[in-house]
Amino acid sequence: MRTDASVPPSLATALETLRARGLQMRRGSDAPAPERARPSVQTGHSILDAALGTGGWPRGAMTLIDGPAGNGGTTLTLGALAACQAAGGLTAWLDLDGTFDPAVAARLEVSLDWLLVVRPRDPVEAIELAAWLARSGLIDVLVLDLGLRAAPERRALDRFGALLARSATSAALLLAPGGRAVAGAVAGVRVAVRRTAWLAVGSDIVGQRVVASVERHRWSLAGRTAELDLWFGEGRRIDPLLPALAEPRAVEVISVEQPALRVVGA
Q1: Buried-most residue among 71, 123, 130, 264 (CB within 10 A)?
Q2: Residue 146 and residue 198: Cα distance in Å, rounded?
Q3: Any alpha helices (H) in the chain, and if so which ranges?
Q4: Which domains does the chain have, with CATH numbers?
Q5: pLDDT tens readout for residues 226-251
Q6: Whose CA is closest to 64, among 190, 149, 150?
Q7: From CA 117, how far away is CA 167, in angstroms rounded?
Q8: Tell me: the pLDDT tens digits for 36-68?
Q9: Crossing angle of helices 154-164 and 123-136, rounded to 10°
């Protein structure tokens, strides 16, 4: 594992800045401090929290978000970051492929001021830096987004999982299909996300309806499912309007996930 001495100075400085900003914010406002005694952090969807049986993503554990590209895995994960930040927590995103879109994250109510974004050089460095962040004791939720790179080594993930178990950090893992078999054997929780319908207002696709299935859970019963409506574009701010207007539509017009308003017809 990466030693503190080998951590890039810029990352250590960014993390310290984030920590200091968080302490100052909590001293000067009524924002709640993160509840580190809790065994989990909320997913941003109460129905999914209930399906997991642990009230959210378990702390000290890795959760594999499984499913085809474009089925809501990234949107679901961004929602969890927003929920964690709303509870006073600090978050991080390790972006191996450089595909993290800050504009999309902001639309889904992720505060970029409270998010540490790291771009590792390769999967090995990504896992090592994730372990270092967990060991820091400052990050409540981190996302290890390995994208389309080569499958991670089982030994590296095993070491990361062992270190994570001694921390209060909850880690979400996003990666290409080729690495899911290895990651699934190591992750304490595995949630499969599958789209069942697009949500449309007239000719505009404004979201998608997905089923999240808990396929594995080391600390609770697996097999439960949750049906979620994931909205694009403006995040929770327009949620009160969309449920009354949106209609499920069985159309396959988007091949990859693009959390933004899309026009599919005249």
Answers
A1: 130
A2: 26
A3: 9-27, 46-52, 73-86, 102-107, 123-136, 154-164, 180-186, 242-245
A4: 8-192 (3.40.50.300)
A5: 999 998 755 444 456 667 778 888 75
A6: 190
A7: 20
A8: 434 799 999 999 999 999 999 999 999 999 988
A9: 10
- β-bridge partners, 214: 191
DSSP 8-state class, residue 119 = -
Give the least confident one: 76-90, 147-161, 198-212, 241-255: 241-255
Residue 259 is encoded by which pair of tokens? 């959390």
Looking at per-residue confidence, does 196 or 16 come out higher? Answer: 196
Under 8 Å between Cβ of 170 and 65? no
b/e code 63-100 from CB counts within 10 Å (16+ = b) = bbbbbeebbbbbbbbbbbbbbbbbbbbbbbbbbbeeeb
Residue 72 is given by DSSP the state: S
